[in-house]
Amino acid sequence: MRSGGYSSCLADWFERFVGWRCAGSGDLSSQAARLHRFDRFLAGSVADPSEVDGASLGKCLASVAHLAPSTKTHLIRVVWQALRYAACRGAPLPPLPEQPRFPRRSIVRPHIFSAEEIERLLLAALELGPSGSLRPQTFSTLFALLITTGIRIGEALAMDICDIDLEGGSLNIRKGKFGKSRIVPLHPTTVEALRAYPTRRLAAHGRDARSAPFFSSLCRTRLAHRTVHDTYRELIERARIGTPGGGLPGIHDLRHSFAVRRLLDWYRRGIDVNERLAALSTYLGHVVHHLHADLPPAHPRDPSRGRQALPTEVSAADSDGEEP
Question: Cα torsion for 294, 296, 302, 308, to the nearest 10°?
Answer without folding.
Answer: -30
